[in-house]
Structures
1.
Amino acid sequence: MNAVQAFHRRSIHDRDQFWREESAQVHWETPFSQILDESKLPFAKWFVGGKTNLCFNAVDRWLDSRADQPALIWVSTEVNQEQTYTYRQLYQEVNAVAAMLRAQGVGQGDRVLIYMPMIPAAVFAMLACVRIGAIHSVVFGGFASVNLAQRIDDAAPKVIVCADAGSRGGKVTPYKNLLDKAISLSEHPPEKVIVVDRGLFAFEPVVGRDLDYATLRTQFNDAIVPVTWLESSAPSYVLYTSGTTGKPKGVQRDTGGYAVALASSMQRIFNGKPGDTFLCTSDIGWVVGHSYIVYGPLIGGQTTILYEGTPVRPDGGILWSLVERFKVNTMFSAPTAIRVLKKQDETLLKKYDLSSLRALYMAGEPLDEPTAKWIAEGLGKPIIDNYWQTETGWPILAGQPGIANVPTKFGSPSFPVYGFDVRVIDEQTGQDLGPNQKGVLAIVPPLPPGAMTTIWGDDARFVDTYFSTIPGRQVYSTFDWGLFDEDRYFFILGRTDDVINVAGHRLGTREIEESINCHAAVAESAVVGIADQLKGQVAVGFAVLKDPGLLDVAGATQRLESEIMKLVDEQLGAIARPARVRFVTTLPKTRSGKVLRRAIVAVCEGRDPGDLTTIEDPTALEQIKDSL
Ligand code: PRX
């Protein structure tokens, strides 16, 4: 057993003492009386009775020792602006926004939805919410109005904070207009909308509802808003994620457990210390952005870089130039970004002084060996694959150099992270599997501190979705296939459900199908994820038309394909747009009417579709093949 495995073992077998020690890394205003309440598993309450606050741990706590250290460095290659905020300045900004929210009547437990691009005000808004005990729900800026409306309806926010627009690769997206449309579709319109006007896209403020951020900011210039101390289990945020159904799940996170998990992971997984600089290229709309752009680095007393831009503008060296300029110690990105860079001039990897950089962490999708090798050799730095989910909030599997340097294996996110009792389980029998046997990757409850505590407003769905799929055992299913080898290195082998991963973005095929089905000409559809060299997967849609006669009309299917793409764009956002939409007269289904997705994927990827004894109409699969 290596040191990482021994550390893990202790976290499971000497759990309470282990987490008591880890919990010392955060400030507790009131000490907890119990490490874990597991009387109602799979619901777990960590650090019962303890009071703390995420904003205090991320900001206030550093005012004594690091007031003048940069806390947040914003770099935008979209609008060519930069801005640095020291911990003292961050404190002031966050307090001003907290005061703004309070002035709108936002208090503990109220929801605030944040629909913003990668700008500092988005970070201030998140921290301001948790400061006053309000629950934020950040919605990824790449999502469009229908996605947004669903989330507004579920979270019922009192206030929404947005910006006029964002920009990606030079293309401006009018956030405020998309939000207005979403609010018009929603049953729970917010009382107020606070708009950061960047001057990127003109908009009409709604009188009586919309407020200008800059005006409020001046009004609350020197405001100080005392921290609201929260019981450890009080929700900090809700972050929506896709699953098998069309309705996204609001992943709810606690306060104390999350603070401890992040503080601990900053040291043990990311091997960092206060004063370091952290660059994470994710987006605040995703879990990686929540944990490792905003909360983790700040709770760890580090400098975090908020980057608005793509990895290839002005050229493919931009990320490395940031590492050089800001002496980045730890970098976190996604395999997609690296695959994009692979297509760029390779000498850009050698052009900058990367001596400050200790390691590059990658997560969000499988890290293929060619990409891992290319970047490891190009940078001459350790590449640390880590595997986790929106639900868990921090890595489930990872190399953990803060504990010990153990060699990595290509294609493997190494070992279970302490606190996660990870198993590979046979989906039929529910039994634990041994080395080199493929099964469902599952976690024996309790989930560790920092993991989701429930689905917002739906405890039953939490239990049904995650803890009821393995026969005879109440264990958390990750919905990923996995195995471990004879040295106990783990490997991830793809999703067991209909979730797909496009360029590191997690999407539900059901949501895309529902959008396609909104087209007047479509009777039904099936969306699958097909392997793609650059994006990992792309969505491909197959639609059955209400009027099959259209298939014979010249140009009709091309027109319909582009109409459907536009529709998905408008409803869900460009990331959900299928790469192709093809038309068939029937979908391959079982006799009980279930679409045979795995067979469709196999045919699309040129593989053998496997066992087809249950298929109702074998010609349906032929049609899929022909349509491509
Ligand atoms: O299928 C796994 C894949 O991404 C899913 C979770 O996506 P999301 O909720 O967006 O959270 C991302 C947090 C990093 C997982 O169920 N996934 C994530 N990391 C990896 C991965 N697949 C393979 N290797 C990884 N390192």
2.
Amino acid sequence: MAVTVKREESSVSLFGERVRARLELAPLRLSLSDPSGEVGIWGARVAALVDGKPRPNAEPSGTRVVASLVRDLACEDDVETPLGRAARVRARVAVGDGLEMGVALELGSDWPGVSLAVELHNTGDRTRDVAALEPFLWEPGAGARLALPGDARALRFLALGHQSWSPARWLRLGEKPRPPRRMLRRVYASPFAPRPRRGRFVSESASALGQPERTGLSLGFTSHSRFLSWIELANEPGRVHGLTARCATDGESLAPGAALASERLWLGLSAPLEQALGQWAERAGREMSAPVPARALSGWCSWYRFGTGVRAEDVSRNVRALRTLGAPVDVVQIDDGFQSAIGDWLAPAPGFPEGLAPLAREIRAAGFRAGLWLAPFLAAPRSRLAQVHPEFLLRDARGKPLTALWNPDWPGARCFALDATHPGVEAWLESLGREVRALGFDYLKLDFLFAGALAGARHDPRVPALAAYRRGIAALRRGAGPGVFLLGCGAPLGASIGLFEGMRIGPDVAARWTNPIFDRLVGVEAGASARNALANVFARAPLHQRLWLNDPDCVLLREAPSKLSDTEVRTLAAAVALAGGLVVVSDELAELSPERRAWLMRMLPSLGHAPAVGPARGGGVPDELVTRFDDGSALWLRVNFGERPERLDLDLRALGLRGATRVWDVFAERELERASGELSLGNLAPHAARLLRLIPDDGAARVIGSTLHFASGALEVESLALEGPGAARLKLRLPGARSGEVALALPSVARLVRVHVAFDEALDVRIQLGGVVNPSEISDR
Ligand code: 9PG
């Protein structure tokens, strides 16, 4: 079915299968609703802020001008757009005072929303400053309504932080958001977005609004070529006073006759609300050609065990341990500490007396990809880089080098930022990429990337912060060449879409559950801790495989030194596994007990699937991840982020399991009672997790559970076939050295058949029951 475009005297309407959109022409107003017209948002305007400048972390100065009368209108039924084929309406709209706007609205037949693009034209005879473009500006009033199902007091707004480490939380209307403290705003917040406060929420690049588990709005920028962007919500308890989508220009002048385009905006309806972030991410990823790898990688990283004190022998020792363990990881990544100074990446620290090339060779010879950490937009004041090339440094308005951050892990702590609009910097980044590739590294963890998109006085002032950042990353990739895997970290997320294979989506993990002292220092929940890292893993789970592979940060499995309890380590491991993205361990492997090594093996390889995320409960963070498989089975994870035991009830129907279901308790390594409908699971202790494998009970031969992998049969079973009464053939495939148990349900056998197996890579066995319910060891070793 195609979109129907209906033109009337004072409006034009677009009817799709899932939504309808309407433009009123005099004055211009935009509406989006479901087909019944019951749920949606009506009467939004299109605006810009002119004759002013964006100001760091404050309202931009300037005057708001609003698109008013539509002058020209063109409707096209079926055109190619960045999101696929769609109907498009283009309008030329009067703004007044020598300005005009072009507005384009696109709707594809099965889209759950519309795409909106705006252009500001200077039709006057003087140059104008443009501080921001606002493709969507909604305030309640005559003809302007917001209708979402549920109670307005239960509405939640998704506030996404600026960069990898910034928290992402679902806020309640009227709640007090927690912005980073002044000193750290440069690190954690977007340079131009206003500071959030009670009554005004800010979300970077995209957001969602609605009541948990009901239909809500999905709103976000799908292009990120030039300007940093965000969504603002003016609110009080039970009331929404305004919803605005804005991109800041970083100070742009518009000459007479010139035009300035906003980034493209997605506005959709999402049922349920929990899918809103994924709805936007899917489109942003497509529009920016996100280079998402087909398979998620796993690895070992030096940082969380060795820190800046890492030495070549620490890496070598763990490479050997990975081999001995038979752990099927892809990458061995050297983190911060190998370099003589921040910025002097090719001059090794004393702990790497032979330099990096032999170590990279050793890693590759052992069968792994070699990975290296870099902070490509930073330079320590005493680095050779900053000394020899002071012209590379980003400056403030007075011409002084801008301090990007103070990091107590580094000598002198202070770090300057590089200005990628300087041709020397671009060339230097390209050669850095080329040289680390030549050393043998084809996996680069690029860290502290926010420093590439700070507000500052750039060498080329016409290039805005976001575009400067993208230019720098592109240069590094050009140098590193094809086949390189770029992992972003500390990275402005919207600005990074389309540039990275992998992306850290939360603050640092640590061998501790919380980090209240650091949280208080920063102002936001970004202190290195398992809980802070996991909160973002859940909140940003929908970005996985849509924008990049999510990196939940490392899993730390050691028993000591660690402040994590057994329960907490298991929660961390299960959540990282279910997240389905990168699985990277950062322990001294020789220090792991056999049990913890077995947990590591159960996380490898990465599940790869993107989980669906449950509703946000207390604390504004979802606590449930569900991975569904093609055969109707699922993996379900629930975490108790709170400090009190929680009652656990699971509605199987909500997971699409309508009939009787077999339930495997992954941690208990046993089957629970068969269930249908509601499953009552007792209490979940604070910081604990429950992981269940759920299988429709169809009476067929099935693997119900396994201790080989947290997937519990979803990943490792190639086939299970009955070969006559009491006989079955089981094929398992899982990389690495394996030993564990597989639990089979066979039609002729009342009890579960538990089989011990041990194999490398693959196993193909016949199981003869012959009246014996528990066959003994089956092994191909
Ligand atoms: C290496 C580390 C690891 C880690 C990264 C990042 O604000 N700070 O001072 C600050 C320091 C370190 C940090 C984040 C913030 O961690 O996330 O995985 O690579 O750098 O220095």
